Amino acid sequence: MKKTIALLLSALLLASVYAGCSEGESSGTSGTSSTGSQSASQTSTQETDNSAETVECLYVVPGDEPKALAEGLSLINEKMAEDGVGVELQMQYIPWDAWDQKINIMLSTGEKFDLFQVMNDRVSLANYASRGALADISQAMETYGENITAVNPEIMMKSGQVNGVQYAIPAYWVESAIDPELFLRKDLMEKYGIEKVPETWDELTAAMETVINNWDGPQKPYLMLTGSNTSRFAYPAKTYEEWPFVIYDKIFYVDQEGNVENYFKTDAFRKDCMYASDWYERGIIDPDCMTITSEQADNQMRTGNYFLGASDIGPLKTNYPDITTDDFVRVELAPDKPDVRPYGTRNMNAVPLSSEHPEAAVKLVNWIYASQDNYDMFMYGREDVDYIKIDDPKGREDIIDESTSVPDYYFSDWMMGNVEFIRPANSQPKAYSERLYTYNENAVEGYAAQFTFDASPVQTEYADVMTVISEYINPMACGVKDYEENIDEALAMLEKAGADRLIEEFKTQLAESKK
User: What is the Cβ-side half-sphere exposure of residue 249, based on CA atoms within 13 angstroms?
Assistant: First the structure.
């Protein structure tokens, strides 16, 4: 929901951002009961028991490899062998800063692998599909994916489709109506004399300045923006008169009446840039934001050098030994306005066209979703070694390796999680968990929430527009470059790259999908 990735924005997102709805982490509102999941699991096992051979499934993901990956994989593969899945899992980790380049090379050269992580807020599923880089797993899903469809509502499954073709398996781990997301640390509010939770943008700005200007730590608690990937400063958006609206694929602005515009031509983008510029000039945004790496942003979260945000408190206790999961509060700038659910989920896993066994990826994920035990083993590792199981309420306590600040084995929920099985860490801020794993009754479904854009008819224009956004738009979106002085050139370059054709194609496809 990262859904980056700063843990709030992407763990979510962050993350999380990166989802459909669940009234609780294990309430069964995703469309199945635990009994139904068990039945599906039995059917799946019966179908795979007749497999003549075990095939390897190489899963490629971003980030750093867990210390005990080999031990974790050994247990997973042993259990899959016992269950007759016919799949042996192997994993390849690619560092965040090399991810986009490396995965693109692997896809374009036809390198052999079987599953990879898709983050729509980074590179969309439609982008990959438009290049002809993905395998159609529709038939494999019908044959081997009963557990997957049992725990994923229709809106989630459609998130993994382009033009009605199933290209990806959704990671329905979080409520998607969470953007814009604002959390503050109450321990720092108390330390720096901020007596009330901000209720307006001006109050939030004043609170940010107070903390940053009086900070006595080793690293300023700047708002974390990785400028090379930030094309939108979304925090104040809910206060705009245009709200609610959704931005898709960085450029498509869609309101609740179905109007589609070039986001960078809208007044909403102008206001985004004005607010970002103000925070940049006030020193709230890091002056070096355009060169900050994802690893640097993650490290800032782990060390606790932040005020706006929320993250697991385990690593924070090194510098803040008294911090608790209650030391976070959500800021509501426009509580009278509805949140908007932009899509089912932004995180998913796709099978590359080069895979020699595309069904293996479906069998793997189907096995993970066959039972709570399978899910726990894959996501959290070895019970009483990597985590301690908590059943009331359902959660977990991570067993942290002090040298790495993480368990020896773990896998990120946002990459493969599902609300039917997820065990939130008991070191995760309570306000944050409540927001992520609770169905948002006040949210409205975005007009294009069940639509996925197919960029293949405009593949060249799409690629060129994304390049222009990175070079001309991102610095304005972060407040580094002045909007008034640079917007005309940026729009001219977008037009030259083919932005108008993209908008028309999006409009046409959206209208067809509504029929």
Answer: 25
Q: Which residues are within 8 A (CB) of 310 and not within 5 positions of it... i.e. 6 or more apart?
A: 7, 8, 183, 328, 429, 431, 432
Out of 348-352, 440-444, 456-460, least confident range: 440-444
Q: What is the pTM of this model?
A: 0.70
Which structure tokens are listed for 254?
């869609």
Nearest residue to 368 (alpha-carbon basis) of 397, 399, 312, 411 = 411
Determine contact, residues 453/502, Cβ cutoff 8 Å: no
Listed in sequence order, the DSSP H helices in 331-471 are 358-368, 372-380, 413-416, 430-436, 459-468
CA angle (358, 59, 134) in 5-degree steps: 45
Ranking 20-24, 142-146, 457-461, 486-490 by mean pLDDT, the lowest is 20-24
Residue 34 predicted with pLDDT over 60:
no
Do β-strands 55-62 and 87-94 pair in parallel, antiparallel, or remain unpaired?
Answer: parallel
Q: Given a cut of 50, is residue 357 above it in pLDDT? A: yes
**Residue 28 to residue 150: CA distance in whole angstroms:** 10
Q: What pLDDT, in 10s, does the model give residues 118-173? A: 998 788 898 899 899 999 999 999 999 999 999 998 888 988 998 889 999 999 99
Q: In whole angstroms, what separates CA 492 from the centre of its chain?
A: 31
Q: Is the pLDDT of residue 17 over 70?
A: no
Q: Are strands 55-62 and 115-119 parallel, antiparallel or unpaired?
A: parallel
Helix (H) or strand (E) holding 188: helix 186-191
Q: Cis ω on the peptide bond leading into residue 475 (within 30° of 0)?
A: no
pLDDT-based confidence at 52, cuts 50/70/90?
A: low
**Distance between CA 476 and CA 467 in Å, rounded?**
15
- Three-class SS of 211-247: HHHHCCCCCCCCECCCCCCCCCCCCCHHHCCCCCEEE
Neighbours of 336 (CB within 10 A): 7
Taken as a whole, the chain contains a residue count of 515
For residue 514, the model assigns a pLDDT of 86
Cβ 51 vs Cβ 44: under 8 Å: no
Integer Cα distance of 411 and 407 in angstroms: 10
Whole-number average pLDDT of the chain: 88
The β-bridge partners of 453 are none
- List CB contacts of 82: < 8 A, sequence separation 6 or more: none
Determine what percent of the chain is predicted with pLDDT higher than 70: 90
The 3-class SS string of 144-187 reads HCHHHHHCCCHHHHHHCEECCEECEEECCCCCCCCCCCCEEEHH
Q: Report the distance separating Cα 397 and Cα 7, nearest Å.
A: 18
Closest to 29 measured CA to CA, from 145, 172, 168, 144: 172
